[in-house]
Design a protein that fits this description.
The complex is a heterotrimer.
Chain A (H helix, E strand, L loop, with lengths): L2 H22 L3 H23 L8 H32 L10
Chain B lengths: L7 H19 L4 H26 L2 E4 L10 E4 L1 H24 L4 H23 L3 H20 L4 H32 L4 H7 L4 H17 L9 H7 L2 H26 L6 H23 L4 H14 L4 H4 L3 H36 L15 H15 L5 H15 L3 H26 L17 H19 L2 H7 L9
Antiparallel strand pairs in B: 1-2
Chain C lengths: L1 H21 L3 H21 L3 H25 L16 H24 L7 H7 L9 H9 L1 H20 L22 H22 L7 H17 L3 E4 L4 H24 L11 H25 L3 E4 L3
Antiparallel strand pairs in C: 1-2
Helix pairs in contact in C: 1-2, 2-3, 3-9, 6-7, 7-10, 7-11, 8-9, 9-11, 10-11
Classes of the chains: A mainly alpha, B mainly alpha, C mainly alpha.
């Protein structure tokens, strides 16, 4: 197996772990962590794709990842602000319909 | 050398963006008139783009002068031009309405204007961009402007609705991006039509298409991924509700059609088409039934959005049937336009009820027709189009879908269209009958607490009238739609 | 040998990710997520993406981690209730979640490995035509040349996140990392260290910015370093949260985007198209845009960490 192939597989598994975290945990902070795991999986996949051919690094996936990182931190920062306000207003650390 | 003529394409993105920045820089006091000027300038750019598409066919603009796959292309065909024009009409109404609605609410206004104007820019970007990754960034921009608008009331219900909307929208974006990563990995390009030529119909493309579609269906609140929409859209302030239902959610539906018809046509087998059409049909029926069960006005309208977002998907099973394709295509595209205008009108009219009474409980609307006559009229007029009765744009759209389904021999979709219309009549008349009912003994339950500014009374009426205009004269819009339509649909 | 290290690294990533999801303690999950970010940076360095590794370590692990930790503190109930963990899920629910994520892993892994690298790609064309972009670093060429619109939209995303966070803002005393420790309790070395670190940070940011044209670095990394400085100053109380955004802050928040848009739109007249640069001016224009971008990245991030509309300097 090549290096890129190995990380491609790791990215797929990481995406699965992220989705499992989204489905299985309901604490808002954990959901936000899981979204970030999923994001990291996409980025890893792109970085691995960029390195598939010997002697050549594709700059386009790299640019996508750098843009993606800034978008991810923006979304995370806003999500955390919203979660904090929601908690301050309701005392809940999860969404009510998710109670089971 | 890119043609300078199509400059109106990038301007449709840059003008609202720069207006948003100026509104933020100068603060709430200057924002309304700045927004007005920016809105008019954007409408002018959109009008120029539409005129060019109508006269000369599809317009492409290579940003930075770099042709795809190297650079990002803005591309306006008839469908995109129609979306831009509908968005401009709704956005103009929202801008005019919000100026009066938010008057005197310093902080809310200060926060609304930059978010709303960036949203407009990002929506135009979404309709114009022919680049799958650029679309991802635009979609995130739309999401991150939409969620704060939902949360603006700051109470328990709206914060919860915003939180759920945000989490689901972020997951949706990442599912989409995962699919785009696979597409680039397989084709080496991010350009919509190049992907369509290169991706083929292999297994990996199918996985990518599934991920992209799942993400977009979630953004478009298609059954069974619809649960977030109604609480979110009914929590927002009225002008934002109008923008969210008429524009933001519909941008998701638009992208589903755009991607399946331009990037994955090779994958659109009868089974896939029936599957996606089935989801659309389920949305129509489920959303309508839920709308019947609501006890407040804004949730009724929001669930009707879930229902109406399903119709355009009925195009997908019909697109490959030569006898049905052309009519179904016109019906689906016209449906998005009709729904956008009517739904924005309905939400703004509901906003007037809320503004005057301080609530929107159906039980409290008895006997209010005289006080809010213009708004109730607007609501009723818009509803005629949502039901699909003549002489509205909604009727024409459904008629085309219906004829397409029958011509293609796929009668189940025709049943869905008719049934959806009947159900819409059901929940629509329930609202209107209450508003026109005799006041309960002792006068109306709640007398209007506030006088309605004329701008707020007029805006929903104008939107509703536009739906009739497009119902009477459809030829220009349908001719525009023909520009650059896929051959099978033309 | 090399592959063995990669195997170990990939295994470590997945092990950490599992722990992040499954661990009982929320604090543990947050810390492990930060560790995962650092490991991810290492993996990217192995995959010939040192510039991305730098950004991931600074933004993905560092700043995101700081935000997560301060949110964790804010979401603590008075007495900590035990987090029920995934066991709280009904068994069929856990099973369904596992099946669904397993299916995703299988489909994604199969699809991603099955894809053959295309002979021609946007990336190859970018490398071949890099000379026309006016910079020497392929990444900067793509970000500020070929795909400049993405970069522009992305800093707007950051601004919008800040505006959105204002809508849901908490009262100032509860916002961000919370009130800073009173000045008297500050460790002795804090002040002299800050006097050393802050100018160094600014110099590093400046260097990263300037070097971005021809080697790894650039606006993002410089912005991240500046944001880290902002976080440091906010944590040590040099920067105090303020209830209003000052005119100067407003200008700094939108300045980078306005400059980028203005240069971009001017391209329709001075060069071939919107977001094109006149050939002779490409490098200085890109440098100017990057400087604006570094501020447009650093300031919203610092404000988002601070949880306030603005920041005011306070001497000690």
């Amino acid at each position: 197996m090549t290096q890129a192939g190995l990380y491609t597989l790791a990215a797929s598994a990481l995406a699965g772990i992220g989705v499992y975290g989204l489905l299985a945990r309901r604490h808002l902070l954990r959901r936000i962590l899981a979204v970030n795991l999923l994001g990291n999986a996409v980025f890893l996949l792109l970085v691995a794709f960029a390195r598939r051919q010997p002697g050549y690094v594709d700059p386009v996936p790299h640019a996508m990842v750098l843009t993606g990182i800034v978008v991810a931190v923006s979304a995370t920062a806003f999500a955390l602000a919203l979660a904090r306000r929601y908690y301050a207003e309701t005392g809940l650390d999860h969404l009510p319909e998710d109670e089971g | 050398m890119a043609e300078l003529g199509a400059l109106s394409l990038p301007l449709a993105f840059f003008l609202p963006l720069l207006t948003a920045l100026a509104a933020f820089l100068l603060g709430a006091r200057q924002a309304p008139w700045l927004a007005g000027i920016g809105a008019l300038a954007t409408v002018a750019a959109v009008a120029d783009a539409v005129r060019r598409v109508a006269a000369h066919g599809p317009q492409a603009y290579h940003l930075g002068g770099w042709a795809p796959p190297l650079g990002v292309e803005l591309y306006a065909d008839g469908l995109a031009a129609l979306m831009l024009a509908m968005t401009a009409a709704v956005a103009l109404a929202v801008t005019a309405y919000a100026g009066a609605y938010l008057h005197g609410q310093g902080q809310a206004a200060e926060r609304f204007w930059p978010l709303w104007l960036v949203q407009w820019a990002a929506l135009n970007g979404t309709f114009l961009s022919a680049d799958l990754f650029n679309l991802y960034v635009m979609l995130e921009l739309v999401t991150l402007t939409a969620v704060p608008l939902v949360a603006m009331a700051g109470d328990r219900a709206s914060l919860g609705a915003a939180m759920r909307y945000l989490l689901l929208a972020l997951i949706a974006s990442l599912a989409y991006l995962l699919g785009v990563a696979l597409l680039y990995g397989g084709t080496g390009t991010l350009h919509l039509r190049e992907v369509g030529e290169l991706a083929g119909a292999g297994g990996p493309t199918a996985v990518a298409a599934a991920l992209v579609t799942a993400g977009l269906l979630l953004k478009a609140a298609i059954f069974p991924l619809h649960a977030w929409l109604a609480p979110a859209h009914s929590s927002a302030p009225a002008p934002a509700s109008a923008a969210l239902s008429a524009l933001v959610a519909q941008a998701g539906v638009y992208l589903v059609l755009r991607l399946w018809l331009w990037a994955f046509p090779a994958l659109l087998s009868p089974v896939v088409g029936w599957g996606l059409g089935g989801l659309g049909a389920a949305s129509v029926l489920y959303g309508s039934l839920q709308a019947l069960r609501q006890s407040r006005l804004k949730p009724v309208i929001a669930y009707s959005t879930v229902a109406q977002l399903g119709y355009p998907l009925l195009l997908l099973p019909l697109a490959a049937v030569p006898a049905a394709a052309s009519q179904a295509w016109q019906g689906a595209a016209y449906f998005i336009v009709a729904h956008g205008l009517a739904k924005a009108g309905a939400f703004l009219a509901a906003g007037n009820v809320y503004y005057s009474l301080g609530h929107d409980r159906l039980a409290g609307l008895r006997g209010l027709a005289p006080e809010l006559s213009a708004s109730v009229l607007a609501l009723g007029l818009a509803w005629v189009s949502l039901m699909g009765l003549p002489p509205t744009a909604g009727f024409l759209a459904k008629w085309q879908l219906l004829s397409g389904a029958l011509a293609g021999g796929q009668w189940p979709w025709a049943v869905v269209v008719v049934l959806g219309g009947l159900l819409a009549a059901g929940y629509g008349f329930r609202v209107l009958a209450t508003a026109h009912a005799a006041a309960p003994p002792g006068g109306p339950v709640g007398r209007p607490a506030r006088r309605l500014p004329w701008r707020m009374a007029a805006t929903p009426l104008l939107l509703a009238l536009a739906v009739y205009l497009l119902g009477v004269s459809a030829v220009p819009a349908l001719r525009l739609l023909g520009q650059g339509a896929p051959e099978a649909l033309g | 040998m090399g592959l063995a290290f990669d195997l170990l690294l990939a295994g470590g990533l997945l092990g950490l990710a599992l722990q992040v999801v499954a661990s009982r303690g929320l604090f543990r999950s947050v810390v492990l997520f930060i560790a995962l970010g650092l490991l991810m940076a290492l993996a990217w360095a192995r995959l010939a993406a040192p510039d991305l590794a730098l950004a991931e370590a600074a933004i993905g692990a560092g700043l995101t981690g700081a935000l997560l930790l301060s949110a964790y503190r804010a979401l603590q109930p008075a007495e900590e209730a035990a987090d029920p963990g995934p066991a709280a899920l009904p068994r069929w629910g856990a099973l369904a979640a596992a099946v669904l994520s397993g299916a995703l892993v299988a489909a994604l892994g199969w699809a991603a490995l099955g894809l053959e690298a295309p002979a021609a790609s946007a990336g190859r064309e970018a490398l071949a035509r890099l000379g026309e972009s006016g910079v020497k670093s392929p990444l900067t060429g793509v970000l500020l040349g070929f795909r400049a619109i993405d970069t522009l939209a992305e800093v707007v995303v950051l601004l919008v996140a800040f505006l959105g966070a204002r809508v849901v803002a908490e009262p100032l005393q509860r916002a961000g990392p919370g009130p800073s420790a009173p000045g008297s309790g500050e460790p002795v070395l804090t002040a002299p260290l800050l006097r050393l670190v802050v100018p160094m940070g600014v110099i590093v940011a400046g260097y990263l910015l300037w070097s971005g044209g021809h080697q790894p670095g650039g606006a993002f990394q410089a912005g991240a370093v500046l944001a880290a400085l902002g976080v440091l100053l906010r944590l040590t109380g040099r920067l105090q949260p303020a209830a209003a955004t000052s005119p100067a802050e407003r200008l700094a928040l939108v300045g980078g985007i306005v400059l980028f848009s203005a240069i971009g739109l001017a391209g329709a007249g001075t060069a071939s198209a919107v977001l094109a640069y006149p050939e002779a001016w490409a490098y200085p224009l890109i440098l100017a845009i990057e400087t604006g971008l570094a501020v447009a990245i650093a300031l919203p991030l610092t404000l988002l960490f601070s949880g306030s509309a603005g920041l005011r300097w306070r001497e000690r």
